[in-house]
């Protein structure tokens, strides 16, 4: 017996999609390029960023597409003036408090497509109590940028780097470290209001925290605030190039669980290891050995 389906209209186009899927999934089936930041494919929608909003006929407010479920006959607009204005404004506000011009993933492209201009909210000035990043790390203030929450880059080991000047408080790392995946609870939101920021418990150094270095927070970060040390160093040197990387899927050999690994290889060197979100064992998650325990591969080079 086939799964029940519903018919919805996305930007004037009728689509038949499985009942119960999100509006976001339905829109992507229709080819709509909807930006997402706090949404993760294996995580419960947090509804924190609001860049994925769409217009649903009959709804007074714009609807977060990641958490709203489709209904029979639903008429959805993803490119209306109201949607585009809201999307652009949210990205400008996020960019006014974070170094999103240096973010990874699809965010720079989405900001460019939306016409977002964070500099409308003021010139770059270090926030009171925060020190501007030191030269030599690619963090010099950019003329015409909005006020950025400057924080020194935290490099405490050879596994991953925390660059909170790129953080947008999407809470994906908090959720991945908590009940969604790892259940370690080493990451939390400290402070309130404008002082809210991602931190370890009691703001202790990473080695003194409950962190088990699984790197699942790195895997879900949409902006590069959390990034592998090798990738960070290569980006700082200007040699990181995903177009020149080959991805090979294999099985982790450390234990018998059967986690799938995607090896990202650039010029014969493994530069990053990820795990597929659609794998029933890992769902994108790994332990410290799977994600970081491969440096021995190139040790003899």
What does this structure look like?
18% of the residues lie in helices and 19% in strands. It is an alpha+beta fold and 301 residues long. Among the domains are: 75 residues, Ubiquitin-like (UB roll) (Roll), CATH 3.10.20.740; 55 residues, ADC-like domains (N-terminal domain of TfIIb, Single Sheet), CATH 2.20.25.90. The strands form four sheets. The protein has a five-stranded mixed sheet, sandwiched between helices. It has a three-stranded antiparallel sheet with strand order 6-7-10. A three-stranded antiparallel sheet has the order 11-12-13.
Features:
single chain; 301 residues; alpha+beta; Ubiquitin-like (UB roll); N-terminal domain of TfIIb; five-stranded mixed β-sheet; three-stranded antiparallel β-sheet
List the helices and strands and how they pair.
Blueprint: E1 5-10, E2 13-18, H1 23-29, E3 53-56, E4 63-64, E5 75-77, H2 81-95, H3 107-114, E6 154-155, E7 160-162, H4 172-177, E8 187-190, E9 197-200, H5 216-220, E10 226-228, H6 229-237, E11 245-251, E12 260-266, E13 269-274, H7 288-292
Parallel strand pairs: 1-5
Antiparallel strand pairs: 1-2, 3-4, 3-5, 6-7, 7-10, 8-9, 11-12, 12-13
Short structural summary:
This protein is α+β, with helices and mostly antiparallel strands.
């Amino acid at each position: 017996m086939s799964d029940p389906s519903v018919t919805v209209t996305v930007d004037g186009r009728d689509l038949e999609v499985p009942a119960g899927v999100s509006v976001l999934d339905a829109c992507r089936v229709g080819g709509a390029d909807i930006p997402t930041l706090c949404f993760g494919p294996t995580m419960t929608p947090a509804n924190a960023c609001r860049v994925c909003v769409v217009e649903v006929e009959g709804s007074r407010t714009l609807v977060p597409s990641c958490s709203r479920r489709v209904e029979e006959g639903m008429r959805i607009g993803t490119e209306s003036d109201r949607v585009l204005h809201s999307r652009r404004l949210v990205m400008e506000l996020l960019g006014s408090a974070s170094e999103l011009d240096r973010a990874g993933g699809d965010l720079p492209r989405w900001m460019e497509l939306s016409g977002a201009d964070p500099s409308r909210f003021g010139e770059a000035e270090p926030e009171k109590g925060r020190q501007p990043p030191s030269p030599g790390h690619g963090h010099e203030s950019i003329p015409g940028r909005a006020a950025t929450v400057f924080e020194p880059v935290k490099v405490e080991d050879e596994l991953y780097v925390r660059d909170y000047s790129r953080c947008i408080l999407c809470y994906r790392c908090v959720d991945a470290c908590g009940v969604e995946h790892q259940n370690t609870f080493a990451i939390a939101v400290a402070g309130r209001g404008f002082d809210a920021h991602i931190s370890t418990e009691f703001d202790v150094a990473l080695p003194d925290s409950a962190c088990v270095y699984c790197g699942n927070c790195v895997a879900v970060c949409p902006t590069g605030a959390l990034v592998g040390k090798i990738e960070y160093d290569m980006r700082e040197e200007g040699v990181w190039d995903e177009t020149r990387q080959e991805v090979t899927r294999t099985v982790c050999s450390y234990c018998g669980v059967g986690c799938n690994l995607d090896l990202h290889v650039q010029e014969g060197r493994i530069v990053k290891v990820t795990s597929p979100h659609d794998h029933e064992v890992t769902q994108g998650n790994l332990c410290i050995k799977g994600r970081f325990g491969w440096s021995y591969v190139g040790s003899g080079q």
